[in-house]
Structure formats: structure tokens, C-alpha cells
DNA sequence: CCTAAAATGGAATGTCCACTCTAAAAAAGG
DNA sequence: CCTTTTTTAGAGTGGACATTCCATTTTAGG
């Protein structure tokens, strides 16, 4: 398995990184992440990434064996970004207010970027699932973590009696995640947040309809 | 506006098509549609499409000015396919049974293709929204038609008193469509239909929770 | 300091890919 | 039939793109 145990701490060939090297590598990954989100994985050229990141060919290939390795690093990076963002929002969820705040956060983020770009993980998934097995597996794991965050939030609500104890939390979390993905894709296409708002509101209202304490 | 008024009836330069020409054009569009769905728009090479469709370069460029024109034809074709499929399923919707049958149809189709490929329109959208304005507009229209089909179904239910008269049908239709898209993307990534089933079931159950007659 | 390793520089290579061009075969239609 | 249009043939082109290679500069650590 070509897994990097410690992220971003080695270059090609397992060579260690100096602070400077780590910074360069980081800059490449961040630039690649942005470009791949903006124009897709295929259209984000190595040349483009080089130019925007301000590095040259050797630097890029010093830190990544090939474009595929860079793609996998981008997946890790975007997963980290999304998970961090949603963790702070979801770990405070103790009731429907928290869930609504989470919904608002997602909508606000999309609006802030003018409905451009969609989901950092979802768009990678769309680009890569059918043509890159390693990527598909990594993205599956990303979705899993994200789903886990949601499950934890719902679980807290369940413990507090806000959701029925016989509710299948895992399934509900998966449905919420799907709602986010679909809402983002539609909103990205339509360039307005209505679709995202509608699907998330309905998903949350559905849970509300199950709530015993209401 | 570069709209083709009558689909598939002219070659480049507005030339009319003989039956033979129409067949060739059709074969190209169908092959391109399949390949673009399977490997994405970028990776579906003109060469690949030629080889699989059994045509040569001249034939392809006789019917399509460039790859972009082919892409737009593929969008039209896939839209037609999806709309036709969902119309037969949705125009019978008069109650929740019909909605559930529609859900089952979507799940069955995905299962039949082993969760490979995702949504013919959704994956085009993901590939093209950020880099191809004409495509984005066309796909926006595709989603709109699809949404209209759903709205009609919900409207029938509303007329029959199965859904409350004050329900925002448009918003509900949009949410359902988003659920389909998100469910398909997740299921495609996970290679199982659970995500699609979960999000659609919840979306339908939400509508059920609003139903006066129940 | 001095040496080994890491980081940077950038030209060069070969493949892939969308698209063009010239020409011939087939079909329409008067 | 004979002319015009449509369809098929397929070699060729120029650019884009991922990757390689050789060389120099910078940093780490004893």
C-alpha cells in the first residue's frame, strides 16, 4: 500500500524535509488544491500549478513522484480542511439550533465564494472515482470521516432525547452528507444557494419531525 | 446564441443530413455520451470516441465543429435520456406509492450498472460547470426540466390533498433533485446504493410527515 | 568550515491530443 | 445519367502536457 505514514514529511524516495522544504511542499499542495477545485483535476496542469505556486519543475518532482501522488496529497489536504471546518461546527451540536448553525455555515461558505467551486471533496470525487482507484478509496475514507462527524452530532442529540433512540443514526448521517453534496452541486450549477438551502432545510425538518421532545 | 433549433438534423455549416448521416451522427453522440459518463469529459478523447464509434476524423468533424460542439450535443442527448426515463416514472405519480416507485427505479438503475457512472447529467455538470459557460447554461436548463417533472408530480399530489396546499412545491422538487444528485455521488464513490436509498427515503418520509391525509 | 544531503534551476524529450487538409466514394435529385 | 452535395478516408500538424535529466545553490550537522 502506497500510504504515506506521516503526511508531508518526506520527499520522493523517502527523503526527509527541512523546514524550507516543508513550506515549499505545502505551497504546492495548497495551490494544486485551489486550482483543482477551480478548474478540475485534469485541467489543473502541472505547469499552471508550478507557475501559480512559484516553483519550478524540479521542485514539484522533488516532492511528488508524479501527478498522481500530488492528487493524493490534495485529497488529504482537502479532507483535512473540510473535516476541520465541520468539526468546529458539529462538535457544538447538542440540538436543532446547532444543526441549523451548521447548515448556515455551509450556505455561508458557498455564498462567500459566489457558488463557485462546490465541495472540495465532492468535486474531487466526481473527477476521480471512475478513473483512479487509489483516489476513490481515499475519497471514500474522507466521506467516511465526515459522516462520522455528523453521526457524533446526531448521537449527542439522541443521548439528550432530542432524537428517538431507535433512529438509525448512521443512515441519517449518510443522508445528511448526501444532501450537502447534492445541494452543493445544484447550487454550483445554478449559481445560487437556494437548492442547498432547500435540501438541507428539508433534511433537518425531517429529523425535527421525528423528535419526541417537540 | 449558438442553439441548434432542430437537434441532429444538420452538420457543420448548417448542411442537411441524409438518413445515413443522421445515423452516423447519432452513433457518435451515443458513444461520446457513454465514454464521457464512464471516464469524464476530459479523458474521453476524440480518438477514443472515433475508435469506439467506428468512424474517422473527418466524419466526426463533419458533424461537429469541435469537441465543444460534441459536448453540447452530449448534454442534449443525456438530458433527453434522463428526462424520458423520469417522465414515464413520474407522470404516474399520484401518491406516495408512485414516489416510492420512482425512488426504486433510480436505485435499480444505479444497481444495474454496479454503482458505476453516477448521474449522466450530474457528472457532466461536475466536469463542466466551472470551465464551460455554454455547458453550464445547458445543464442548468436540464436540471430545470427534471425539476419541472418532479414539481408536476408533487403538484398532482397536492391537488389530491396528499400534500398540504401551502407547501412550496418548487422548493420541495429542488430538494428532491438535490437528494438524487448527492445520493448518486456518494453511492458512486462507495460503490453501494445505501447512501442513495437513505437520502431518498428520508426526503420522501419528510414529505410524508407533512401529509394531512395520514 | 567542510562535507553530505536537500533544494532549486530550467532546458529537453516524447507522447498525446484536438484539429486541418486534400481527396475520393457514395448518394440525391433533376 | 450527369451534376451537385453529402459522406467517408486518413495522413499530417502544431501545441500542450507530464516527466526526465544534468547542473547549481543552499542548508544541515559534525
UniProtKB/TrEMBL annotation, chains A, B:
Domain of life: Bacteria
Name this protein carries in UniProt: Transcriptional regulator
DNA-binding region(s) in UniProt: 45-64
Sorted UniProt keywords: DNA-binding, Transcription, Transcription regulation
HTH tetR-type domain span: 22-82
PROSITE patterns, per the entry: HTH_TETR_2
Organism: Frondihabitans sucicola
SUPFAM superfamilies: Homeodomain-like, Tetracyclin repressor-like, C-terminal domain
InterPro entries with a match to the protein in the record: Homeodomain-like_sf (IPR009057), HTH_TetR (IPR001647), Tet_transcr_reg_TetR-rel_C_sf (IPR036271), YxaF_TetR_C (IPR054156)
Coiled-coil ranges (or none): none
